[in-house]
């Protein structure tokens, strides 16, 4: 056994596991999750990340961890600004892929009779699927404005409200974005896709709150039993993918230039003090602004559709947070507060109460943390904790985490069988391509309830509410 069990949900991967490890690995999981982890080789990736220059404390793995490009998905690592690095593999191809939840203040009894027509109307309104193009036509000057201003651009153009910006991480705009570091090819890929959902594991769900775990925090968040919510999960589309692809090539050259050696070329990186790192950070933040604008526009489209069916409906944004980012953040190490670069790949920020980055209304309780389940399973709202801030750089899981590859999932069931099974559970499903339904079957993912229970038992975030799907829209 390569792991040492520290308590019920913490496991240590010792530095003896692999030559070159600078820190230990800290893995969150129960016996079910650890068993899945050891079968797929993600331990090797956790160890590889632990070999990177300037890594601080641990190479972390959240309970939804699984094999990814370079970093495992569900991996977290923080790096010193003095001798640390930044790696595109620690962010991923879908830069700022993230989730938002909107509160309808409608009861499920009001919505359920209209669910088929409502779902069809949203499916028609929000473009989805591979290579989908948006109804919003923008030129290059507008696109550059999007990359500079994120959701703020969307609100100024009439997509969304000023109140939304308060409830988006970084107030909807990463200020150090620099579009001059984004390639022409990335711009061309992004221009037609603004306001589109995409495909794969991206989705839009109509849900109902069917369980409240913390009445005090739920009240602060505006959550009530039986309340209908909308969850949107998507990212930076082709633009973010191209930025990652471009900078992997840059980082491979940079490693030769700076004499950096890594155990896996997919961990290619550059020193945080280097020009290459500054350019990647500028381009990554620009792609993140695109993603924030994209989710804001889709949220606006959903509001429009709901108003058609419920003229007095008021959809308020609970929160919008990314789970594929590298952020420069302030954290305390050895009693000193300092800037560090936190990579979260398939992991979510979970800031504690009183954190200065939080909206004023959430500071007394902490950050809303959104954990989507797999298609047809429940999702969760959690809240950040002080322990998570101190132990793992204010990070937590981001979802259920795959256990079957898309290829393996495609072999398991035909789409009609999956749809009938979900329909029997009272879940309406619409998709641009039936292949996506087969790829995203619930069995392709871990049990999200087990994953969420682990982070709660670890104390790095706490359960607030459970959301059950009424309708799912996929690309």
TrEMBL record:
Enzyme nomenclature, EC number: 6.5.1.-
One Pfam family per UniProt: RtcB
> What does the cofactor field's note say?
Binds 2 manganese ions per subunit.
Cofactor(s) listed:
Mn(2+)
Q: Which reaction does it catalyse?
A: a 3'-end 3'-phospho-ribonucleotide-RNA + a 5'-end dephospho-ribonucleoside-RNA + GTP = a ribonucleotidyl-ribonucleotide-RNA + GMP + diphosphate
- Which keywords fit this entry according to its UniProt record? GTP-binding, Ligase, Manganese, Metal-binding, Nucleotide-binding, RNA repair
The terms under GO molecular function for this entry are:
ligase activity
Bilayer-crossing residues are none
InterPro entries, A to Z: RtcB, RtcB-like_sf
The protein's enzyme class: ligase
| Family of this protein | Belongs to the RtcB family.
This protein's assembly is summarised as: Monomer.
Name of this chain's protein: tRNA-splicing ligase RtcB
- Tell me what organism the protein belongs to: Acetomicrobium flavidum
Encoding gene (name)? rtcB
């Amino acid at each position: 056994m390569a792991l040492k069990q520290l308590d019920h949900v913490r496991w240590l991967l010792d530095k003896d596991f692999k030559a070159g490890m600078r820190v230990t690995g800290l893995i969150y999981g129960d016996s079910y999750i650890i068993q899945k982890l050891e079968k797929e080789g993600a331990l090797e990736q956790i160890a590889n990340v632990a070999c990177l220059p300037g890594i601080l404390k641990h190479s972390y793995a959240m309970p939804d961890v699984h094999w990814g490009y370079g970093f495992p998905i569900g991996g977290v690592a923080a790096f010193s600004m003095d001798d640390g690095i930044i790696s595109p593999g620690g962010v991923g191809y879908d830069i700022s892929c993230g989730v938002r939840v909107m509160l309808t203040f409608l009861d499920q009894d009001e919505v359920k009779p209209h669910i088929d027509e409502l779902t069809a109307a949203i499916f028609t309104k929000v473009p989805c699927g591979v290579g989908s193009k948006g109804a919003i036509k923008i030129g290059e000057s507008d696109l550059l404005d999007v990359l500079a201003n994120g959701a703020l651009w969307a609100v100024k153009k009439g997509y969304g409200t000023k109140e939304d910006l308060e409830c988006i991480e970084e107030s909807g705009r990463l200020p150090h974005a620099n579009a001059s570091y984004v390639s022409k090819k990335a711009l061309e890929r992004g221009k037609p896709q603004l306001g589109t959902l995409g495909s794969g594991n991206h989705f839009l769900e109509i849900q109902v709150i069917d369980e409240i775990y913390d009445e005090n925090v739920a009240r602060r968040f505006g959550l009530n039993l039986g309340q209908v919510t909308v969850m949107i999960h998507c990212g930076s589309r082709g633009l973010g993918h191209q930025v990652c692809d471009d900078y992997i090539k840059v980082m491979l050259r940079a490693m030769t230039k700076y004499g950096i050696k890594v155990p896996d070329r997919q961990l290619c990186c550059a020193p945080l003090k280097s020009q290459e790192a500054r350019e990647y950070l500028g381009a990554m933040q620009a792609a993140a602004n695109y993603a924030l604008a994209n989710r804001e526009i889709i949220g606006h489209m959903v509001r429009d559709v709901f108003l058609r069916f419920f003229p007095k409906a008021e959809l308020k944004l609970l929160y919008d947070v990314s789970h594929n980012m590298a952020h420069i953040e302030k954290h305390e190490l050895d009693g000193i507060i300092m800037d560090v670069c936190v990579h979260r790949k398939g992991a979510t920020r979970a800031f504690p109460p009183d954190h200065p980055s939080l909206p004023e209304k959430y500071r007394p309780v902490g950050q809303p943390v959104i954990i989507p389940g797999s298609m047809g399973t429940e999702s969760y709202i959690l809240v950040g904790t002080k322990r998570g801030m101190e132990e793992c750089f204010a990070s937590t899981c981001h979802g259920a985490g795959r256990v079957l590859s898309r290829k393996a999932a495609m072999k398991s069931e035909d789409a009609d069988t999956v749809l009938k099974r979900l329909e029997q559970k009272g879940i309406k499903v619409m998709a641009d391509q039936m292949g996506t339904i087969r790829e995203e079957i619930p069995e392709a993912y871990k049990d999200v309830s087990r994953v969420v229970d682990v982070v709660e038992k670890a104390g790095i975030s706490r359960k607030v509410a459970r959301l059950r799907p009424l309708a799912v829209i996929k690309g």
